[in-house]
Amino acid sequence: MSISALVRPRPVHRAADLLAAYLPGSLYFSSPRGTLLADGVHARVRAGGGAQALAAAEALDAAATAGVPEPVVAGAVGFNPAAETGLVVPSVVRRADAPAGVRAPEAESGTSWTITPRPESARYAESVRRALELIGRGDLRKVVLARGLELTADAPVWVPALLARLVRADPAAYAFAVDVTAPGDPAPRTLVGASPELLVSRRGATVVANPLAGSAPRSGDDALDRERVARLRESAKDLGEHAHTAAQVAEVLGRFCADLDVPSGPEVIGTPTMWHLSTRITGRLADPTDPACSALGLAEALHPTPAVCGVPAPGALAAITDLEPQARGYYAGMVGWTGLDGDGEWAVTIRSAEVCDRTVRLFAGAGIVAGSDPAAELAETGAKFRTLLRALGVEDMA
């Protein structure tokens, strides 16, 4: 008998089956590139000061030596890279090549919700005005300000059903569910969402980033949406905001790439709830064997981008700390996976929520630049909440 006849074929999974198999405590990540479902923890990735890439590479090497087949590091990193992290080497990983096409369960129509804005709308608008003062003085060029909603249901929220509804609503999104339980949590905590924004992906020597900045709500009326897209394409405020983000992403990737392709201007892409200015940046790595050039290494170098932080970053971070009443946690961080060969995908954790028993905590942010209007930024964050609110069966409560 030949050696090849003794090799067992790799199991073939369907993306819809992996989604259906998701249970709280598993790790789910899907994108147009494929779906990953992981269970168990072979090792946790521990790194101080935000230095995740090197620690991840060491954990992957150790897992391979221990006999873990095709190990990956997967999980989430918070907005503050030196704080919240949830990166692990899973014990079991299953993959499928295509995003899930599923019939999602309807939202529980009988659920009763209590919704608390954090902060109140008037306080958020005042924070935007204070940010505009900083921009007017020349201290900042852009800062992203977020506000939150805390929803409490009359029964525990079933994360698998919520995840399925998110995937069904936008199969092209970067959908995820990650266990981020922290000490003191009264029940398991899950970071779940459907992000439209790719932070970075790597396949071999090829890297792709797709920053989004500059947005308009989607109305559902074709004529009105055409008008909104046209205005977005011509908006000096939104184009300037987008240019800050795209330039920073290109500058960072340029440190690692021998070749970089940056389009001369953005396109407009749509999600079920929003229109976004989008620039797809591609490059070829100078040294794919460098651990700093792994998908996680590149993501770590990029994070946080001006799309979720601001320009210049140190001043924007200080303004966010001062003006936002609560820490973001994993919102506006990154979520994804990296393999032993350095390939992987990382998305920005927007359109996301943290679910713990009966409580759902979600955030939405808007980029504040010269010319921003507090009422318009408030409305933009309200539109961005709709992705999760629709999946929860709660409409018009932002």
Full CATH superfamily name: Anthranilate synthase
Helix content: 25-40%
**Strands, total number:** 22
CATH class: Alpha Beta
The rough form would be described as globular
- CATH architecture descriptor text: 4-Layer Sandwich
Largest sheet: 10 strands, antiparallel
Radius of gyration: 21 Å
User: How many angstroms separate the termini?
Assistant: 66 Å
Output the number of helix runs: 10
How would you classify the helix and strand content by structural class?
alpha+beta
CATH topological fold name: Anthranilate synthase
Q: Which whole number gives the mean pLDDT?
A: 92
Low confidence ranges: none
- What is the number of independent domains? 1
Domain Chorismate-utilising enzyme C-terminal: 122-384
InterPro entries: ADC_synthase, Anth_synth_I-like, Chorismate_C, IsoChor_synthase
Protein name: isochorismate synthase
Keywords: Isomerase
How does this structure look, described?
With 398 residues, the protein is of the alpha+beta class. The protein has a single domain (15-97, 115-392), classed as Anthranilate synthase (4-Layer Sandwich), CATH 3.60.120. 31% of the residues lie in helices and 31% in strands. It has helices at 3-6, 15-21, 52-65, 121-136, 159-169, 222-234, 236-254, 295-302, 313-323, 374-392; strands at 27-31, 34-39, 43-44, 72-77, 85-89, 92-96, 113-118, 142-153, 174-179, 189-195, 198-203, 206-210, 212-217, 257-261, 267-270, 274-278, 281-285, 310-311, 334-339, 344-348, 352-356, 359-368. Strands 1, 2, 6, 7, 8, 9, 10, 18, 21 and 22 form a ten-stranded antiparallel beta sheet that branches. The chain has a nine-stranded antiparallel beta sheet with strand order 3-5-4-19-20-11-12-17-14, covered by helices on one side. A three-stranded antiparallel beta sheet has the order 13-16-15. A hairpin with a 7-residue loop joins strand 4 and strand 5 (85-89). The longest helix has 19 residues, at 236-254. It starts with a helix and ends in a 6-residue tail after the last helix.
